[in-house]
Sequence to fold (142 residues):
Amino acid sequence: MNLVDQIIDYVIKHVGWDALSDAGFRDQETLKQYISFQLIHQNLMYVLDPETEAVTGVLISYECDEDEAYARFEWTVPNGKKCIFVAQVAVSDSDSLKLLAHGFLLRFKDKKTTVCVRRGTYTTMKAHDIAKRLLTQTEASL
Fold:
C-alpha cells in the first residue's frame, strides 16, 4: 500500500468518517486529493512505526492569514503567514505525538496565533505551548 493510502486509512480510522464528512469530504477520493495536496505542499507530517512501517501519527498544518484559517479549504496555497492553521492531528501513541510536536516546533519556529477546528467549531489553540510542554515532559522523564 502506498503512503497516501496508508495515511487515508489511518485518518479515517482515527478521526472517523463522520468528522471528515462534517469537514467537507464527500468521499475517499476527495480525501485522497486533499492529503496528496498537503503532502505536495509540505504541510503534512507523518510518523511511521520503525518495525511495521505503519502510520502512527499525522499532522496537517500550514501558515496562513486568519481570514484564510477561518474559511473553508479552497485548493490553493494560502498567501499569508500571520497565523498557523492546524487542520488535523491524529496519533496512536505518545511517541508519535512527541515526534509530531518536535516537527511542529521545527517547522513553525515563531509563536503565532494558531487556529484549529474542535467539535465542528473554529477555535484558537496554544500549539507552541502544548508542543513545548509535551517535549519538556519527555525530557523530565529521562
